[in-house]
Amino acid sequence: MKRTFRLLIILGLFASCNNNDRQSTSAGEGEKAVDNTPPIINYSVVQVLPHDTSSFTEGLLVHDGQLYESTGTEPNMPEGRHSLFGIVDPKTGKIGAKAELDRNKYFGEGIAFLKDKVYQLTWTSKVGFIYDARTFKKTGEFNIPVKEGWGMTTDGTNLIMSDGSSNISYVDPASFRLVKVVGVTDNNGPVSNINELELIHGFLYANQWQTNYILKIDPSSGKVVGRLDLTSLVNEARNKYGNSDTLNGIAYDSASGKIYVTGKLWPNIYEIKFSI
């Protein structure tokens, strides 16, 4: 009897443990998984400006209250498109060229104003150009220290470059040596195709090539902390002009707080507003 009673107690305890385990497992299965996807940043369109549909946009920025655009082209692209940069006329969208590259040698990419100079990247030729920021006369060249020249901005001390990978590189404008490299990641890991860059209130905003997103990036960690989904603007551009290409170009006017976006061969530049 004692042996049987002890056996029943042991079997009862075992069943109780199994039941508790099943309850714990069920509770764990019922817990909601944490969503680490970068949140969508809502925006509104303030105004729509014209943009030259022959401009294959590689960079967009505001300097001294004027909107500048840089473009790229290759020999096999239609005549009339150039690798140049200059001031965009808000009435026509045409670029008043300040500097132009030989289209048979160079594909122009992003530009940045830093102190009294303008720096210009080229895509695959590994050479960049330096201009006087007042006269726009070319004053020098430099070796691009990243894989390829894509987007560029500045934090007032360094040039900040993208090369189409998931890396954003900080470069000393005097020696053109790498100061640091920040890897961009989101909930799925490294984020590639980082393109045009702009620094707004301490965060880097980047066009992600071949997507309709502008990413908000924490430069201290490289984490994507938000995304602007500009699909509606992409669709509007393509409905208005069928040859409109990918979204590219973001510019911030720190004096007025205005933000502008556009795309390659788009018919419009959009002033947009969102919480920054």
Question: How does this structure look, described?
Answer:
This protein is mainly beta and 276 residues long. The chain has one domain (43-274): 6 Propeller (Neuraminidase). The protein is built from 2 helices and 22 strands. The strands form 6 sheets. The chain has a 4-stranded antiparallel beta sheet with strand order 1-22-21-20. Strand 10 (152-154) and strand 11 (159-162) form a beta hairpin. Residues 1-29 have low confidence and may be disordered.
* End-to-end separation: 77 Å
Number of alpha- plus pi-helical segments: 2
Structural class: mainly beta
Mean residue pLDDT: 90
Question: Can you tell me the CATH superfamily?
Answer: TolB, C-terminal domain
Main sheet record:
4 strands, antiparallel
β-sheet strand percentage: 35-45%
Which regions have little confidence, pLDDT < 50, spanning 5+ residues?
Answer: 1-29
Shape type: globular
CATH classification class:
Mainly Beta
Topology pattern, helix = H, strand = E: HEEEEEEEEEEEEEEEEEEEHEEE
CATH topology: Neuraminidase
Report the radius of gyration as a whole number of Å: 26 Å
Percent of residues in helical segments?
10-25%
How many domains is the backbone divided into? 1
Strand line-up across the major sheet = 1-22-21-20
How many runs of DSSP E, i.e. beta strands? 22
